[in-house]
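Encode chain A's predicted structure.
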Amino acid sequence: MAAKPTEASQIISEVAHAEGGTTKGSKSAQMQSELTKQRNLEETAANVGSKLETAPGSITKEDAQSVHRAESRALHGQQPPSGSISSRAQHEAAVNEGATSTSPTTAPTDPTVQSQTDRQANFEDAASKIGSKLVNEPGNVTKEEADILHSREHRAFGYTEKGGLASQAQHQVAENEGATTG
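Encoded structure for chain A:
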């Protein structure tokens, strides 16, 4: 016996029928993609969330990456907010990884052992200072500041967001340099 279609599936089916079928890039295909992303997030978040509640010491880097990917996809490539399940999982994974580390000689400022929370805090600190300068004194944003912001965003999240603050700062620096050389 087939499962009863959900309301969302029914709506997608009706849109596909109105479009004459589902084709790549169609509204119904986009709706199906969004529904799939949301379901993947819900499933992954339920699994990792259960581990966070019952056995936080068992959260692995892979668990954190899995939920982060699902959450980021559901947010259309945006970074999940602080306090989200992926940030909590990343924190627990970092704590668990640090608890099993066998290298006591590594300095705590080494990015390979620096906790995810610290990396995010470093990014937020740089984003606050440089972001304020970008708004209030865009002509004074330096290449070094843009590079720091880019580096800290990449360390905190594993990539830089297209159109994000680091990207805006680098664009402003390029404009500033173009204004002084042109």
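The first helix runs from residue 7 to 19.
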